[in-house]
Design brief:
The protein is an alpha+beta fold. The protein has 7 helices and 12 strands. The strands form 4 sheets. Strands 5-6-10-9-8-7 form a 6-stranded antiparallel sheet, with helices on one face. It has a two-stranded antiparallel sheet with strand order 1-2. The chain has a two-stranded antiparallel sheet with strand order 3-4. Helix 3 crosses helix 5. The longest helix is centred in the N-terminal third of the chain and has 19 residues. Bound molecules: zinc ion.
């Protein structure tokens, strides 16, 4: 005879109950308990006679040594070094396509950035014009605010990628003689930053008595891509770009910004020029 399905379940259930109940029988509990108690041990601390605790010396916090790049800076400002000038190119940047009436005219690829090439070289060392680094640190010290370098060295590939205009092809960014930047917290006061630059020349001892460095004039006669007449002395040329000017790929932020170009090389006592040799052949590819 076949057992009805319902009865089958009922008998299985009873069998399971039997198993569970026999498992939790407490007939042997007293024996187990006694074994457990015997095995219980505490961890004791043993001391030898005459032992005593040393009193901890009071904490004596030491000021950590200052690194060269922290010197003369407040805690939220790291000193600007040539590292801030490394090319901002990246292989992750998509190709920039110039098209007219829907037809592709030109396609520009970015460089591999600082991982793929060095800064410009002078005497076999990476080189950025020191006046740019000194001016940016002076601005940081005087303003107490952070300088943000948006464009330092641009290798020729990155220079064309950010702005392929003819005027930009001779950009001094390619030889480490130009920097674009703004100051955090003073984004809308670029002319105050220009005053700091003029003050630098008045305060720095090596320029004392040198009128052509201490006196700035305004550049009004030539062509520029800015509406504010640039400031210049013998060594530098300073431009202020307002919110709608100079928006290249490196400067695609919403703030006005400044650019400083080096006109005259203090060490070599000669005019700074950009040549194909200096731009293309004067840095290492990795
Ligand atoms: Zn590059």
């Amino acid at each position: 005879m076949i057992m009805p399905m319902k009865n089958c379940f009922a008998s299985s259930y009873l069998f399971l109950c039997f198993l569970v109940c026999s498992g939790c029988s407490n007939s042997d509990q007293p024996a187990e308990e006694s074994v457990r108690r015997t095995n219980q041990r505490g961890e004791f601390v043993y001391r030898h006679q005459g032992e005593f605790l040393f009193a901890a010396a009071p904490a004596d916090p030491q000021t950590p040594p200052t690194y060269p790049w922290e010197e003369g800076q407040s805690s939220n400002q790291l000193r600007i070094t040539k590292e801030y000038f490394r090319c901002k190119g990246s292989i992750l940047n998509p190709p920039r396509i110039v098209a007219e009436n829907g037809k592709e005219l030109q396609r520009y690829h970015d460089c591999g950035g600082a991982e793929k090439h060095s800064l410009p070289l002078r005497n076999n060392k990476e080189f950025i014009y020191p006046i740019l680094i000194d001016l940016l640190n002076y601005i940081q010290n005087k303003s107490g605010k952070r300088v943000v370098v948006t464009s330092g060295h641009r290798c020729p590939d990155h220079n064309t990628y950010v702005d392929s205009s003819v005027q930009n092809s001779s950009s001094k960014h390619q030889v480490g003689a130009e920097v674009s930047f703004y100051v955090q917290g003073m984004e809308n006061q670029p002319e105050q930053i220009v005053k700091y630059i003029i003050d630098y020349y008045k305060e720095t001892s090596k320029y004392q008595g040198l009128k052509e460095y201490q006196e700035f004039s305004r550049f009004t006669k030539g062509e520029t891509n800015v509406s504010t007449p640039p400031w210049m002395n013998k060594e530098v040329f300073v431009k202020v770009f307002n919110k709608k000017e100079g928006r290249d790929f490196d400067n695609r932020h919403p703030y006005p910004y400044l650019s400083i170009q080096v006109r005259y090389d203090w060490d070599l006592q000669e005019k700074v020029t950009v040549t194909w040799e200096k731009a293309y052949k004067n840095y290492l590819r990795f």
